[in-house]
Design brief:
The chain is of the alpha/beta class and 459 residues long. It folds into 2 domains: 347 residues, 3-Layer(aba) Sandwich (Rossmann fold), CATH 3.40.50.12780; 103 residues, ANL, C-terminal domain (GMP Synthetase, Chain A, domain 3, 2-Layer Sandwich). It is built from 14 helices and 26 strands. A hairpin with a 2-residue loop joins strand 19 and strand 20. It is globular. The protein starts with a helix and ends with a helix. GO terms for molecular function: medium-chain fatty acid-CoA ligase activity. It comes from Bacteriovorax stolpii (Bdellovibrio stolpii).
């Protein structure tokens, strides 16, 4: 694939429908606007090796910059439109880009920019759950490899793809937007992070005759709990990624979809989004179980159970952070940070290595506890974590944040359920009842925010 040259090959003026105020807006001059934006960027001296930071929401303006920048070989750095001024400035200071575009279209040119490799397509920042966000560098070659893998391995059901995820991370940008778009399909681009979109998802699917969309578990819970199902049977496949898809959410979503297959996908930003899924599974749903990766090698560290992957779509490293890069890259292998098992056909994930609870040397996987608690008829969701000692050095207890379905939930009955299914040392010592699981801008549970809830209770 001649990546830069092929970016606009399959695009037309109706390739993207922009959903605004619950109405679809077709940009009949989309291609003309992209070409105009390319010309403007060239006049400003931008090209391969230059970094372009985009602090824009899902919009026509964002698409113009993204597609024009990709066609010119510019290294693009999309940031969340909800980023604070301090967060944006911190990224600018680290990157020293050539140009920054703020919400509303205001541009700021940096007088002394630094250059990156001419092969770099994106720098995507991780959510920063374990420290400050790291800038994942994805080259044009890695991105082209990933799009080719999708073409070979994903169901061909992307004719009308709904994208309601933000375009500043791999799942939304690569899997839910660029792949269907560059393959010649139509994308209905909705604003991200809007409750009214999630609660009216069924009617949006019907109105725009959507054939597929991708989501995260937290959005699926909202859509199925508060919204009506789609009625027109246009959907062919639905995908879910970025966080653990528990059995209860899979079951309620599958029922809501009325027989449409819900695919659980596995991937991460460092691997240019999805690397595997459960596409070959035909016998029901097995939580945290995936087919072996597409066109990639996989191995496991025997002592810890940590999973390593070697892939042609792997990042080249973290931007200007050789120490962090060295910790996860070794002879072409990527340390995923996931703990699990590998069989001849599947990967079975147990959890994240940095979320494993260690009580006196005994390792406990939070997802095992979550699976049990979600069996309770009055529990909508839950999140389990290790509660640190006062000095923050060791886990001294297990805490669980529980979201009830209704007011009849009794914590004592949750504890009783745990006693029936879990060893005594795995039963949470502290339960906290809340109205929701805090999530970050990507829809993932916000571990830090949940930890603060328990700290507040303790204080």
């Amino acid at each position: 694939m001649q990546f830069k040259e092929d970016i606009l090959k399959n695009l037309g003026n109706e390739s993207i429908l922009f959903l605004k105020d619950k109405k679809n807006v077709i940009s009949h001059s989309l291609i003309q606007k992209i070409e105009k934006r390319k010309h403007q960027l060239l006049l400003q001296g931008l090209g391969p090796g230059h970094k372009l930071v985009l602090c824009l929401p899902n919009s026509e303006l964002l698409c113009e910059y993204l597609l024009a920048g990709l066609a010119l070989g510019i290294c693009l750095v999309p940031l969340s439109s909800q980023s604070t001024e301090n967060e944006i400035q911190e990224i600018i200071n680290r990157l020293q880009p050539s140009l920054v575009v703020f919400s509303g279209g205001r541009e700021e040119k940096i007088l002394t920019p630094t250059m990156t490799s001419k092969e770099d397509a994106f720098i995507l920042f991780t959510s920063g759950s374990s420290g400050r966000p790291k800038g994942v560098i994805l080259t044009q070659k890695a991105l082209a490899n990933k799009l080719a893998l999708y073409q070979q391995n994903l169901p061909q059901s992307f004719e009308k793809t709904l994208c309601m995820l933000p375009l500043n991370f791999g799942h939304g940008l690569i899997s839910n937007f660029l792949f269907p778009l560059l393959a010649g399909n139509q994308v209905i681009l909705a604003p991200s992070g809007q409750m009214e979109i999630y609660t009216s998802l069924g009617s949006l699917i019907d109105e725009f005759r959507v054939t597929t969309f991708s989501s995260v578990p937290s959005i699926l819970k909202i859509a199925t709990h508060f919204g009506e199902s789609p009625k027109k049977k246009t959907l062919k496949d639905v995908f879910c990624a970025s966080a653990n898809l528990d059995q209860a959410t899979w079951s309620s979503t599958t029922s809501w979809l009325d027989g449409i297959r819900l695919h659980n996908m596995y991937g991460m930003t460092e691997l240019a989004s999805w690397i595997a899924g459960d596409l070959k599974t035909t016998q029901g749903y097995k939580e945290s179980t995936f087919d072996l990766p597409w066109d990639a090698e996989i191995k496991m560290t025997e002592e810890t159970g940590e999973i390593w992957i070697k892939s042609a779509s792997l990042m080249s490293g973290y931007y200007n952070d050789p120490e962090a890069t060295k910790k996860v890259l070794e002879n072409g292998w990527f340390k995923t940070g996931d703990v699990g098992e590998i069989s001849s056909e599947h990967i079975i994930l147990k959890g994240r290595a940095d979320n494993v609870i260690n009580l006196g040397g005994v390792k406990i996987y939070p997802e095992e506890i979550n699976r049990v608690i979600r069996l309770h008829q009055d529990v909508l969701d839950c999140y389990t974590l290790g509660l640190k000692s006062a000095d923050g050095l060791v886990d001294q207890a297990i805490g669980c944040l529980v979201v009830p379905k209704n007011s009849s939930l009794k914590v004592a009955s949750v504890e009783e359920l745990c006693r029936h299914h879990l060893s005594a040392y795995k039963i949470p010592g502290q339960f906290l009842v809340g109205d929701k699981i805090p999530v970050n801008q990507r829809g993932k549970p916000d571990h830090g925010a949940i930890k603060l809830l328990f700290q507040a209770k303790r204080n």
